[in-house]
Amino acid sequence: MLRFPPIHGVCDIDLVDFNQDGLMDIVISNGDNADYSPISKPYHGITVYLNHGNLEFRKSLFLPYPGVLHTIVKDFDQDGDLDFVAVSFFPGDLKTSVAPFVYFEQKDGKFEAHSFEEAYFGKWMTIISGDFDSDGDEDLLMGSFFIKQFSCKRRTCTMERLQPDLA
Question: Is residue 166 part of a domain?
């Protein structure tokens, strides 16, 4: 099927009917960068492999995203097409051109990357989505080991910093 060398850092796989043809396609996040050489790699990112039947998958989309660890594929903006949200552990500061959280919004078949300044307060390693507040839209919960609590709702974010125990 699909094979990659270890340096590709495949760390997340999802099955989704990306092109809505009834066949499950593969979405891979490959950005695990800490084990061998912690530098930006041009092949790290989010890749969609379309299913052509009989276990034949062909690469159809690549979104470069160094250090990406986890990706969720859903129609986050409720416009009928699939978008991505993803977290990256690698970059981690405002000086880099890569944000630790990115929302890739699909518009007319192309993807536009969005992030926000508060995303830099964490070292994000995981993300889940669901309608946690039962209001009919998708909410996100991100996991980091640098802050205690962080949440976003309708472009408004709140956070509580983790205070070190000095006792």
Answer: no
